[in-house]
Structures are given as C-alpha cells and as structure tokens.
Amino acid sequence: MSQQEQVRRDRSTMSSRLVITLLFTVVQAGALVVVLGEFPAEGVLRVALAVALAGTVLSVLNAWEEVLLSSRRGCRRDR
After folding, report:
1. Is 76 exposed, middle or buried (0-12, 13-18, 19+ CB in 10 A)?
2. pTM
3. What percent of the chain shows pLDDT beyond 70?
C-alpha cells in the first residue's frame, strides 16, 4: 500500500469516527434532556439516575478525546 493510499484510508477512518461521535453526542444529549425533563425521580432512584447520566457525560467526553487524538496523529503523519 502506498503512502497516499494510507493517508486516504486514515482520513476516511477519521471522518467516519467523527460522524459516529457526532451522532452519539446528539443522541446522548437528547436522551439527557428527555430524562431530566420528563423523568420524576425521588430518593435512591434520583442517585441512580445521576450516576447513569454521569456515565453518559464521561462516555461522550471519552469519544471526543479519541477523535481529537486520532486527528492529531493524522496531522503528524501528513508532515
């Protein structure tokens, strides 16, 4: 595989990862709004909901971190 083909493949992988992360973020944000706005939680259920939502936020942040790291690696290879 040539260097140019490798760069194209890396960019394609990066683009698909970016699209998936964007969709994931939109879905998680929508779910967060619905749950916070519509879900009546009391006591232990409220704590469980807070933990689940914190996990959602962490997973979104982790996904974006992966996208940023991948893009930086791709930029270094292009030089």
Report:
1. exposed
2. 0.65
3. 80
- CB atoms under 10 Å from CB of 14, counted, come to 16
Backbone Cα Rg of the chain:
18
Q: Residue 13 and residue 67: Cα distance in Å, rounded?
A: 10
The angle, 0 to 180 degrees and rounded to 10, between the axes of the packed helices 44-78 and 3-38 is 160
> Do 77 and 10 meet the contact criterion of CB atoms below 8 Å apart?
yes
Q: Which residues contact 40 (CB under 8 A, 6 or more apart)?
A: none
pLDDT (tens digit, 9 = 90+) per residue, 4-23?
A: 666 666 677 778 888 888 99
